[in-house]
Specification:
184 residues; 25% strand
Length: 184
């Protein structure tokens, strides 16, 4: 039994050490180019047990992460992307090993095709968790990260999830396929 617990603990530590990076390779987004990236947090709800954070504290980190991810694409077709923060729970300090809550945010994503003047996605909801590091796996992110670090980490994960979801939609539904008029 002791060996099994030790193995599971080691496995949790090793698998927990993968973090989302700002400079990951771009996804395949076809002819996509972001015209405007909007971020809204005015109606975000702070969930019970969360560390205190003002809605305004989310806007700049989310905007920065979203812009960094989406401005990498320079296709000939313009799209607007909006992300609204609906709710969040920033993990408070827990009891190490026994109770290590993870921070989480719920966002809605909107993608608008500027030329066609239509929404490709009108309110797609996503639940985003923070990455676990070796340190936060043991003591929890409430002990190992500041509120600002938790918000920055969640913001990066939100931008990453939005980018990956858009790439899936492009692959499955041809969202950002090059239009004939754009090819000419």
């Amino acid at each position: 039994m002791t060996r099994l617990l030790a193995f599971l603990g080691l496995f949790a530590l090793l698998s927990a050490c993968t973090e989302t990076l700002l400079d990951e390779p771009p996804e395949d987004l076809g002819a996509f180019r972001v015209r405007v990236a909007h971020v809204y947090a005015e109606k975000a709800l702070k969930w019970p047990m969360s560390r205190a954070a003002e809605q305004s504290e989310w806007i700049e980190p989310m905007k920065t992460a979203l812009e960094a991810r989406l401005r990498r694409y320079d296709g000939p077709q313009e799209y607007d992307v909006a992300v609204t923060l609906e709710g969040f729970m920033l993990a408070p300090p827990g009891v190490p090993v026994l109770f290590n809550p993870k921070s989480v945010a719920v966002v809605n994503v909107f993608v608008y095709d500027v030329e066609k003047e239509e929404f490709l996605a009108d309110k797609h909801q996503m639940e985003i968790f923070e990455d676990t590091t070796g340190e936060s796996a043991i003591v929890g992110s409430g002990h190992s990260r500041t509120k600002e670090e938790q918000i920055a980490g969640l913001s990066l994960n939100i931008a990453d999830a939005v980018e990956e979801w858009m790439a899936e939609q492009h692959k499955e539904n041809g969202w950002f396929d090059l239009r004939a008029e754009a090819a000419e």
